[in-house]
Amino acid sequence: MAEITLSKLAHSYFAKPRGEADFALKEMDHVWQDGGAYALLGASGCGKTTLLNIISGLVTPSQGRVLFGGRDVTRAPTAERNIAQVFQFPVVYDTMTVRENLAFPLKNRGRDAAYVARRVDQIAKMIGMESALDRRAQGLTADAKQKISLGRGMVREDVNAILFDEPLTVIDPHMKWELRTQLKQLHREFGHTMIYVTHDQTEALTFADKVVVMHEGRVVQTGTPEELFETPEHTFVGYFIGSPGMNLFDAEVQGETARVNGIDVPLGAAYPALRGRVQIGIRPEFVSLAAEGLPVTVTRVEDVGRHRILRAEAFGRPVNLLLPEGEAAATGQTRLRLAPEKINVYADDWRVKPLGQQRGA
Question: Is ATP-binding among this UniProt entry's keywords (predicted)?
Answer without folding.
Answer: yes
